[in-house]
Amino acid sequence: MLNILNYNLKVIYFETWFFLVFGALVGSFLNVCILRIPEKTFFKNLRSVCPNCQKKIPFWLNIPVFSYLFLRGRAACCKARLSIQYPLVEVFTMLMFPLVYWHFPFVLDTKSGQLDPEVFLRFCHFIIFVCLMITVSVIDIRLQIIPDVLSLSMIALSPLWVYLHPELKWQSSLLGVVFGGGVLYVVAWTYYLIRRDYGLGFGDVKLLAGIGGWLGAEAILPTLFLGSILGSFFGVCFIIFTKGADMKMKIPFGPFLALGAVCHMLFGQQISDILYFGNFE
Known about the structure:
mainly alpha, two-stranded antiparallel ribbon, 2 strands, 68% helix
């Protein structure tokens, strides 16, 4: 029994480290997407370049997290200050990969390479979803836009995930797109008619429609609820700590929708139990 326990711990330990490293590498790629997608320069350079002087970055100075620390936050070529976004995205992605794997441990036997195909599909589905949410969130924080190429692509790819995912039904996905986009569309237009101002961007509408397509209609209300709570909490904290911030300052809602969706995806059952959602027994 102890031998089996030690073996399982070793497997979990190995896989955790593997996904930490893999997540950091993916996080570095997400930084490229975050910078290039809004500028429509994704295929301009195959190699990473300095954001200040455009010189190519050698691979030994492009190691996730460590290169930023080694260079003390400055570019090696021109000494320009590098954005803290780079290590933050890499670290967050690095931590999310093993977390998602712990929820969907698809490796049955490390030695033989035996996998559970259904759990593997769930893992792929959710890890791609998390990467999209990270990319959307940082772009929205930086520029207060959600590129259509991301949100509309999510909607367009929903049928593919319905086909591949062992549990996602087409009725739930389709209703998720319609309900997710529809509810925020109504909220956005209602706000505009009352205040004559756009309090909610239509990028958020398309994002929630994409979330509904990927997670199903049952994810819409929890995502909205969690996103609203998190957004309100952040807004109140920001006002308190900045002492006199402009009450009309626009705070992007996309990151909170994304965070709410990821929280529902990973901890939906636990949150539902706490809030008694769907538990009337």
